[in-house]
Amino acid sequence: MQLKRFFVIAWLLLTGIAGLSAQKFGIKSNLISDAVTTPNLGIEFRMAPKWTMDISGQLNAWNIHERRWRHWMVQPEARLWLCSAFQGSFFGLHAIGGQFNIGNIDNNINFLGSDFSKLKDHRYQGWGAGAGIAYGYAFVLGTHWNLELELGVGWIYTRYDIYPCAVCGTVLAKDRHHNYFGPTKLALNIEYLF
Predict the structure, then answer these.
(1) How far is CA 84 from CA 42, 48, 51, 88, in A?
(2) Which has more pLDDT, 65 or 143?
(3) What is the mean pLDDT of residues 148-162?
(4) CA-to-CA distance for 86 and 156, rounded, in angstroms?
(5) Could you tell me the pTM of the whole model?
(6) I need a surface site. Which of 28, 34, 66, 158 has the fewest CB within 10 A?
(7) 142 three-class SS
């Protein structure tokens, strides 16, 4: 039932977007996510002269050298542009949702109450959802190209299970939760406008 609902929503978005004219629809990729081997894609379309809707997602579905860093995430965002859509400064309000399966990542990061160093000895598998606010700026590179910078902060609630290693299936702890407050979006997008 959920898959059917997904295809109906995707079809409605795509058929609605197909009727848009130049400078009213864009496709983008976050170069920061690309640099850390996380494929991503975003679409953005104009809803009013100063309002756009950005829907970005990413999927990382593989293991790298016995490290597990699998996740998918969707991040819709309503944007208010200070001049006109697709150029200059904007403020955004975004939601976040996704699932993760992460472990055997060696680091010493303890950031704003979240201890990521625990990823070295355990695997965490679960889901997260949250919301945030953002500020960004779009540099017009040409008629159809933009370079976009964006930083967002907010809250993410996660619920997860803990496993002793990156590949084993024995559960150490079930149904734990964590509230994260801090950066929720960091983007350096290259965008093509139609």
Answers:
(1) 20, 9, 8, 8
(2) 143
(3) 96
(4) 27
(5) 0.80
(6) 66
(7) coil
